[in-house]
Each structure stands twice: as C-alpha cells, then as structure tokens.
Amino acid sequence: MKIIVTGSLGNISQPLVEILVKQGHTVTVVSSDQKKQATIENLGAIPAIGSLFDVKFLTDTFSGADAVYAMIPLSFTEPNLEEYFHRISQNYAEALKETKTKRIVFLSGWSADLVKGENIEHAFDGLDASVTIMRPGAFYTNFYQSMDMIKGKGFIGKFLTLRYLGLRALITGKTGLLMGNYGGDDRIVFVSPKDIADAVAEELLLLPKEQTIRYVGSEEMTCNEAAKIIGTAVGKPWLKWVLLSDKEMLQGLKMAKLPEKLAELLVEMQAAMHSGKTLENFHHNNPKMGKVKLVDFAQEFATAYHKN
After folding, report:
1. Domain range 2-137+192-217, CATH architecture
2. Average pLDDT of span 102-109
3. HSE value, Cβ hemisphere, 13 Å, CA-based, for 56
4. Contact yes or no for 84/75 (Cβ under 8 A)
5. C-alpha angle 288/4/166, rounded to 5°?
6. For a Cys-Cys bond, which of 8, 68, 76, 93 suits 31, CB 3.0-4.6 Å?
C-alpha cells in the first residue's frame, strides 16, 4: 500500500513509519522541516517537505495514496487556536476530497467531544471515504517535558507542555508536586505513543464502511499512582499530584504566557478529565489497551532524567 504519514518524526509518527516500512508499504512522511529529509530517507520512507497550510502541497502529496494518517500539531503561538485547528482540518479535508483517498485515520484525543466550540473531527464527515478517529489517553512521553521542573529548577506557573487532547499539568519540582485542575485520586488512562502507533498501523489496513472511533490506552490509574511511579523511578517517591481549581489553573497558564484561547481550552479539557466524563466515554467505547506499562516507561524516563 501507498501510505502517507503526517506529523513528521514525532512520538507517534516515527514508530508508525518504522512499523509500516517493515510491513513492506511505500510510506511518505510529511514534514515542514527540511532538516528531517535525510532521517526520513534513512528510515526507508519518502520525505514530503511542505506546509499543512498549503492545500496544493497536501493534494499533490496525497495523490494516489491508499491511506492517510492525519494529525494536527499543537501550536503554542497561534492566538486563535480554534481557527488554527479549523484551518488545518479543512485543508486536510479539501485535499482528501480532491484526491479521493479511501482510507483516513485521524488523530484526535479522548476529550475531543467534551469541549466547547467546533469539533475538528467533523471536518471529515462529508468525505466519500472510510474514516477512523483515534482518541488516545494521556501520553507517557509528556512527562519528559517536566524533567527540569522535577529536578527542582522549575516554579509554579510553568506548565508541563502536553498534547492538546491528552495530559496537562502544572508542576513544581522544588516541592515534588504535580499540579492541575485534575489530579490526586482522579483516574486517568495513560498511553504510550508506541501503542498508539501500533493501533494506527492496524487501522490503516482496515476499511470499515462507516466512520469509526477508536479509543487507545496503555494503563489506567490515579494521578497520584502515576506520580509515585515516575517519582520512584527518579528517586523522589514522595512526588504527588495536587488538584487545583479551574481558576487557579487558568491563572497559572496565563502566567506562562499562553494565548488566552489555548489556556481556556486546556482548563476545559482538564475539567472534563476531573469530572470523570472522559474516563466514562473511554470505557463505553470498547477500548483496546496496549502493552506498554507506565513502570516500563518510567525506567526509560529515569535514564534520560539522570543523563541530563
């Protein structure tokens, strides 16, 4: 099959490319970074360097493809995040309609249907294609971005930069605390990007007649249980996850100088996680759990933690 993978060489896209190339597919990787070209080629894939804002580029790239994996990278500089999501999703839809691509797998998130405003998943509703929406839980790899703060170099008001439909948190390494407007004993589904890549690779080869939604997770636990696993791995077993109010969380994100719309979106998604609605949806949709446990990821995290 000829398969297009967007997302450059990110946490999901790179292992996905490796899986698909190993299976013998012809894989094209979309990236905006010219410097990634050689690495993409070394993986056995074809680089397509261009912008997601360029519909002609997307149309040319998708032409003749059997399947497309589409994702929208989160921007922390766009003043109007909803408009940004809308524009990219519509660009995808326009290019996919023009090329008559028959199989589309789109990366969303497990609280996508619980936030106000336009649901970008609907951009693909009118296409004459087989569409699957992937809704993964909170990414393990997002803990990497808390590394300096866990070491005690951070402060309240800096936040852990995470995928827009996954785990979000404030953290202060000085006191060994994770903070967010969800946390404590809230139960969360965490997921390894490797398990997401496995799920996407599986879906790309299927052709369901109707649009489907697939929830993906690796392990379910409370926020404090997750904090203890990460903390124990790095020698801070007392690490806790403290629950903040929505107002406190919003103030912290604004202190971090996030665009207002993005800050409000993050708070709204975390509030949905705290309410338990995201977890309820997850269990009501026959989720397929992956193989990678948080304790396994924690060892990988600890290696990087002590190396830096």
Report:
1. 3-Layer(aba) Sandwich (3.40)
2. 97
3. 0
4. yes
5. 40
6. 8
